[in-house]
Amino acid sequence: MSISEEDRFATEWTLNQFRDDLSTRGIVNVTEGLKPVSFDVYWHVFYANQTKEGGYVSDEQIQRQMKVLNDDFKSANISWNFKNTTRIENEEWFLSAAPGTPQEKEMKTQYHKSDSTALNIFTAQFNSTTKSLGFASLPSSYLSDPISDGLVIRHSTLPGGSQTNYNQGRTTVHEAGHWLGLYHTFEGGCTGVGDNVDDTAPEASESAGCPVGRKSCPDAKLADPIHNFMDYSFDSCMTHFTPGQAVRMHEVIWAFRTKRPPVANSTVPKTSSVAAKHAVPSTSASSATGSLDLEAFPTGISNYDDGMGEDDDGQEYFEEDE
Ligand SMILES: [Zn+2]
């Protein structure tokens, strides 16, 4: 499932405000050096019964998943700090908590912890009509719907799970990439701004399996980015984020997931000229900016025009197909 143009616009608009603000202050590249960032992680295991099939994810699996997350985000200088696990026996939530459902709202309202700077991961099964392996909320949705922030992950995708070809923990890595503002590498197809990252090769559609050498865009210089965490390849085929994706995640962290006082009276304009607006990704800019204090950071960004481009639940999700 692709991001809607409205949601993409809301995200890009805020990011560009952020970049413009930095530029006004003479700061060329806030992400210079990619100063390390760490996020606390709260786990919520919903299960039908205390078996593996019933969703009773073990502590060992969660620790293995934490290791995969930390290993895979290491090159981006992003780390994840396990806080605790809450286990909740609730078969209805276990089977039905897909995005937009009343069950999702109920479980998150009761169990979501902390704020935009902490990651909540909910594991569940989904019912037989939901093929997805996981869902992630968009950073731009946080202000309008903070309770829904986080990931909902199919329990069988964790390391040691039963999801054939998708049980090495890369579903959670991929969803965490969305949580930090990354789009799919195949977003937008072969032309246009694609995934708003310069150094990921364009791709006509998602990959399946591990099709080494696949080149779905005839005019592209490079083969498809099938080894990228933000494609749909098998877990064993995924190896990395690009430097451009790392920079984008750090920009998103500054713009959406940094502790600072809330900002009032900034709204996203209601137009969809995303391509025109997003002309200058600054991934290759360089500048010795030194260290930056939180207080030095932008005001006037990060407020989200409530209701724009959102569904009735106020939350948009990326959805992964099997
Ligand atoms: Zn995705």
How is this structure best summarized?
With 322 residues, the chain is of the alpha/beta class. The protein contains 7 helices and 6 strands. The chain has a domain at 5-20 and 35-182 and 241-257: Collagenase (Catalytic Domain), CATH 3.40.390.
Q: What would your notes on this structure say?
A:
Keywords: Disulfide bond, Hydrolase, Metal-binding, Metalloprotease, Protease, Signal, Zinc. This is Zincin. GO terms for molecular function: metal ion binding; metallopeptidase activity. Residues 281-290 have a biased composition (Polar residues). It is a single chain. This protein is of the alpha/beta class and 322 residues long. It has a domain at 5-20 and 35-182 and 241-257: Collagenase (Catalytic Domain) (3-Layer(aba) Sandwich), CATH 3.40.390. It is built from seven helices and six strands, in the order αβαβααβββαααβ. Strands 2-1-3-5-4-6 form a six-stranded mixed β-sheet. Helix 1 packs across helix 6 (243-256) and helix 2 crosses helix 5 (170-179). It starts with a helix and ends with a strand. 44% of the residues are buried. Residues 261-266 and 269-316 have low confidence and may be disordered. Bound molecules: zinc ion.
